[in-house]
Every structure is written in structure tokens, then in C-alpha cells.
Specification:
Layout lengths: L14 E4 L13 H13 L5 E3 L11 H15 L5 E5 L4 H14 L3 E4 L9 H12 L6 E5 L1 H4 L5 H6 L6 E6 L5 H10 L4 E4 L5 H7 L3 E4 L6 H12 L3 H15 L7 H11 L16 H16 L4 H5 L1
Parallel strand pairs: 1-8, 2-3, 3-4, 4-5, 5-6, 6-7, 7-8
């Protein structure tokens, strides 16, 4: 089984990790080439790693074999340039274990594991689920805590209980309570790598000790995401705040129930692909569409001058 020592590859996990979108053709079939090309675009902008098949990647809208197809295409295209992780979001613990093992065979570098879908497990059941998946693979695992969306809260105390599982190495903290960063540090110290999982809490999370950012809007604004991360990492907080204030109306789109549609619309407006999603998600329409488009287009029109800020 893997460990979390400094020599382990997961020790290098830091910085901007897109929760990448999955591209579709007009008939809603997978567009693997467009998905891989978009990954290339984000790598060129300087992302540090990538997570396929998260919430934004419409994991639960894909068939099992389609998920594996996405991973094969991504691993082949990335060719070791950055770490490739995959979301593990299945309805049963057994299926999550099977998917983790299959993803490992394909050659991904790590997993982002969610509690079992639909059923709202209690703390004992949640801990058992994560232990089972951890023991089904040798890959390092980022534990995804998102009680707002999935109804299961993995508390700092539960992470302390899980700390004896050596390949549970990171936490994506998406409770929307930035105090959790400090609570986790107080409870488990540096046992886990901490990633912010809520776009419009990222600067606060970095200040409090987050080492990475799993982002949705990076799909549309990869260079700006990297800029904000770099400014904050260099303690250039005055400049980081200015970028953050520009970006925050866009980052708010990540916290809505329709985040996938909003982010894909932003991707299309920025020229990086299609806004197509799989039903039951439908294209935005009417007043809602115009409101979101106005936010996106204002962001594009007023985006920061990156060379000047980095000089």
C-alpha cells in the first residue's frame, strides 16, 4: 500500500487542480478529443494537476465504461506532465472499490473519493466506506468533503480516525465553512494535504493554510486561476485581492446547483468548447441565461492584464 511520506508522488500535489468538464457531441455522446484538447489548453496555462470525472465532469451522468474511456484518453494525452486524478462517485461501496481498482489499472495517479451517492451515510458508515476504497487500491486518495451537495459531512474528528489509512493523503474541503481549514489543522496537523474545493473561498483558504485549489471556473479562465494562485502563494496579497475581486462574481457560479451548466457556458463563451450537458441538465434559457451571460461577459471584458501583474 502507498504511504504519504515526502517521497510519495502525492507529496507534490499542490496548486491549481481543475475539476475538468467532460465534453459531449451534439447527440450527447462523449467527445474524447475535445475533452483531451481542453486538458491540453489548461496545462499550457500552467495548472498543476487535474481531476477528471468530478461533479463538474458529470461523473454520475456517464456510464461505467464511458468513465474508463475518459480516463484512458486523458492519461494518454497528459503523458505524465501533471498528476491525473479521477473522481470516485458510485452508489455502493463495492462499486466504488471496483472503479478505484479499474482506474488504477488505466494509469491514473490518484483518486478523489466521495461518500457513496444518494444514501446519506452516518459517520460509522462513511468511515467504513473510505477505508474500503483505500484498501482496494494502492493509489493516493484525496477525500472529498462536500456536505452541502451530498449530505454527508466528514468532520475533522472523522479525518483523525481515518489517519491510520496511509493512502488517504489529501482533503478537498467543500463544506463552505472556511473555519474548517483551521479546525483540520488543529485536529490532524499536517497529516493531510488540504485543498480548497469552493471557488469563492479560495483566497481565504490559502491564507489559512490550504496547499491546493480544486477549481471549476479554471475550465474557462485557466490563466487567471494560475495568476491568483501565484500572487497568493508569493504573499502578494494586495494584488491577489484585486484579482479576487474581479474574479469573485464568476467564482460564485461554482456554488450554485447549476454549476455545471454555468461553467460550461463560461467555457463556451471563452472559446474552449461547447456548453452541452447531459440530460436531465438542460441548456440555460431565458432570464437565467441572460443573467449568467452578463456575469461571464463582464468578466471577459475586464479580465486582468496578466503580464503586467506578474512583472
Amino acid at each position: 500500500m502507498s504511504d504519504s511520506s515526502p517521497s510519495h508522488p502525492s507529496a507534490a500535489w499542490h496548486g491549481v487542480f481543475p475539476a475538468a468538464i467532460t465534453h459531449f457531441r451534439d447527440d450527447q455522446s462523449l467527445d474524447l478529443e475535445a475533452t483531451a484538447a481542453h486538458v491540453d489548453t489548461m496545462i499550457a496555462a500552467g495548472i498543476h494537476g487535474i481531476i477528471m470525472l468530478g461533479t463538474v465532469g458529470e461523473n454520475c451522468s456517464l456510464e461505467y465504461h464511458e468513465k474508463l474511456d475518459v480516463l484512458r484518453a486523458t492519461v494518454e494525452r497528459v503523458a505524465g506532465r501533471i498528476p491525473v486524478l479521477t473522481g470516485v462517485a458510485e452508489y455502493t461501496t463495492a462499486l466504488a472499490c471496483r472503479f478505484a481498482a479499474d482506474a488504477e489499472k488505466i494509469g491514473v495517479d490518484g483518486l478523489m473519493v466521495l461518500p457513496a451517492m444518494v444514501y446519506k451515510s452516518d459517520p460509522r458508515e462513511t468511515v467504513t466506506h473510505f477505508r474500503a476504497v483505500a484498501n482496494a487500491t494502492g493509489l493516493p486518495i484525496m477525500c472529498y468533503n462536500n456536505p452541502v451537495s451530498y449530505g454527508v459531512d466528514i468532520t475533522p474528528g472523522m479525518f483523525a480516525e481515518l489517519s491510520d489509512e496511509p493512502n488517504l493523503v489529501a482533503i478537498k474541503e467543500s463544506s463552505e465553512d472556511v473555519r474548517r481549514i483551521t479546525d483540520l489543522k488543529n485536529e490532524v496537523g499536517d497529516r493531510y494535504l488540504l485543498f480548497c474545493g469552493v471557488d469563492d473561498l479560495v483566497l481565504e483558504s490559502i491564507v489559512l493554510g490550504a496547499q491546493g485549489w480544486v477549481s471549476g471556473l479554471v475550465n474557462a479562465f485557466p490563466a487567471e486561476n494560475r495568476l491568483l494562485w501565484d500572487l497568493a502563494a508569493e504573499d502578494r496579497y494586495e494584488e491577489a485581492r484585486e484579482v479576487y475581486r474581479w474574479y469573485t462574481p464568476l467564482l460564485h457560479l461554482d456554488t450554485h446547483v447549476k454549476l455545471v451548466q454555468y461553467i460550461k457556458l463560461a467555457v463556451a463563451e471563452c472559446g474552449y468548447g461547447s456548453e452541452l450537458t447531459r440530460a436531465p441538465r438542460l441548456a440555460l434559457a431565458g432570464e437565467e441565461r441572460e443573467k449568467v451571460l452578463a456575469i461571464i461577459r463582464k468578466g471577459i471584458a475586464t479580465r486582468p492584464q496578466i503580464p503586467a501583474l506578474l512583472s
